[in-house]
Amino acid sequence: MKLATYRDGSRDGQLVVVSRDLSTAHYATGIADRLQQVLDDWGFLSPQLQDLYEALNGGKARHAFPFDPQMCMAPLPRAYQWADGSAYLNHVELVRAAGGAEVPERFYTEPLMYQGGSDDLLGPCDDIRVADEAFGIDFEGELALVIGKPGRHIAAADAMQHVRLLMLANDVSLRQLIAAEVETRLGLVQGKPSTAFSPVAVTPDELGEAWQDGRVHLTLQVSWNGRKVGLCEAGPDMRFHFGQLIAHVARTRNVRAGSIVGSGTVSNHGVDQGGRRDWPKGYSCIAEKRAIETILDGAPRTDYMRFGDTVRIEAFGADGQSVFGAIEQRVAKA
Amino acid sequence: MKLATYRDGSRDGQLVVVSRDLSTAHYATGIADRLQQVLDDWGFLSPQLQDLYEALNGGKARHAFPFDPQMCMAPLPRAYQWADGSAYLNHVELVRAAGGAEVPERFYTEPLMYQGGSDDLLGPCDDIRVADEAFGIDFEGELALVIGKPGRHIAAADAMQHVRLLMLANDVSLRQLIAAEVETRLGLVQGKPSTAFSPVAVTPDELGEAWQDGRVHLTLQVSWNGRKVGLCEAGPDMRFHFGQLIAHVARTRNVRAGSIVGSGTVSNHGVDQGGRRDWPKGYSCIAEKRAIETILDGAPRTDYMRFGDTVRIEAFGADGQSVFGAIEQRVAKA
């Protein structure tokens, strides 16, 4: 099942069911108004939404209308939690190596994670509004999931049953502000402005065999100003699967329904080609490209995003269909 | 006006208005069910709650009942944001000095802040449930506020008009886990389990002259196992006022109604007494006591909390009345 939140002037928007091929949609009115409601009462409400979804796919939903991603807010426009992992160790290794820092042993056994702000999440086509280009504006293409069944001390192996929905995320980063914030050792506030999410959130069954071992085995396509810069595989190099990320958040806390957990920037290991290290899959964030340039040539050549720049993030299923719809954002001066 | 959230088996509880002296309460039914609703529509709903509050104080509310803090959830049992500052530099100086680290210059001009989890906030009398005493269980007595009017790029001087409610907080900390987490440079997840809040949240006018310059000029009383360990003044040594803390969160993001911002552990500067440095006001967290012991005697003598330990945090107005009611929690094995 695929769900989206349509803009209606309210803070939480209006829940819609979207057809598998993303061509049509139908208001969930009469079942639920908001996605958080559904997450709070999944057992009762989701079968009703599933029925509507099937009618919609069969062309039998009475008041179906063409689906327009431009109308979408984030599936959860404000959420009670956004905890973002950094599960692709290649990303961490590259960024650390470029900065001349070692990767601590612990990073290979314990997931990295930061707590993000979740009161103002962006829709897939919302502008990335930043006051100053000098902040070092970057995108981060990621997978994210929404937890339904709450709990504390969830074992990584049991965590999959807590996953209700999957989405794409653009975890926008302000690199120059992050550089200063990490020195506080208390984490990221200003360096992580609002994160954007894909038009639709989908139940794991929509991924078929691509959802396996707690990982999404799809290619994440990232384009910057219309040019494809990343075709990274989201499955194989995800060192910590989503179950481990959920278990990490839930180790000392009771995690509640509607919490969003992110994978971190999707990133693949490099390969040795003709005596030189190469990263043929490209990149899902500019910081990584700059790290590669620094490692290979001593200095970064690629600048961060400018006002007017665009980024597009999307993933396609085995059938060639866009699974989540595309995140497509423009950087604008705040 | 004083507001609380009564436990009713639901995730968000039931909004009640509480009398100034905390003796009686009245359901806000008919006006609003949940506090977040009120924050989303403050201009319309708060005058109605204020009328009920005045009737309650005058003994004229029809269905008033005795107020019981044990029935309270956090005023916002789940919130869209919990961003906690560390605005009392003495706390930072002590903890750094004990660890042999300098305080960077930047810490005197830019507030320190971490993003906390906000999906599972604790009521004033809820147990602090921790799996292992070896995690280094600590309390942190703090002031916190709830933002009502949302915004981005809020100037510190304008931020006061965004403050809707004030509360006390116990920002529970697991010191041994924090020690490992700060090394990730991405902030705190496992080291900060659920934060607890006072029985009532109060509008700033309830503080009278004690609410000045964006600071709460009251004494924060902290007792550990029934023994008073802290009588710190919350006003004078708060290096960054709440307006500056709000401006810090809102620098690169749009901050939404219902966001909670914390002061950090209330802490007063030491004084020189008889040739020896002393901190006569005591402490609002054990880490600080241990830092003082380390500075004076080379090693900490005070252990962190044990299962069964209790902590009580409260503040009294000029009239001797408890302003927010007391946070009174026990540590229990999870």
What does this structure look like?
2 copies of one chain form a homodimer. Chain A has 334 residues and is an alpha+beta fold. Chain A has 6 helices and 25 strands. The first copy, chain A, has helices spanning 35-40, 42-57, 89-98, 175-181, 242-249, 286-297; strands at 2-6, 14-18, 24-27, 65-66, 72-73, 82-85, 113-116, 128-130, 137-138, 141-147, 151-152, 163-170, 173-174, 196-197, 201-202, 211-212, 215-216, 219-224, 227-233, 254-255, 260-262, 271-273, 276-278, 310-315, 327-333. In chain A, the strands form 7 sheets. In chain A, strands 1, 2, 3, 4, 5 and 15 form a 6-stranded antiparallel beta sheet that branches. Chain A has a 6-stranded mixed beta sheet with strand order 7-6-21-10-12-14, with helices on one face. In chain A, a hairpin with a 7-residue loop joins β1 and β2. The relative contact order of chain A is 0.19. The mean pLDDT of chain A is 96.
Greatest interface (CB-CB under 8 A), with counts per chain: A-B, 53 and 52 residues
Task: Report mean pLDDT of chain A, rounded to a whole number.
Answer: 96
Total helices of chain A: the number is 6
Strand content of chain A: 25-35%
* Sequence stretches where pLDDT stays below 50 over 5 or more residues of chain A: none
Percent of residues in helices of chain A comes to 10-25%
Main β-sheet of chain A: number of strands, strand sense, barrel status?
6 strands, antiparallel
Radius of gyration of chain A: 19 Å
Distance between the termini of chain A: 36 Å
What kind of assembly state do the chains in view correspond to? homodimer
Q: Based on DSSP secondary structure assignment, what is the total number of beta strands of chain A?
A: 25
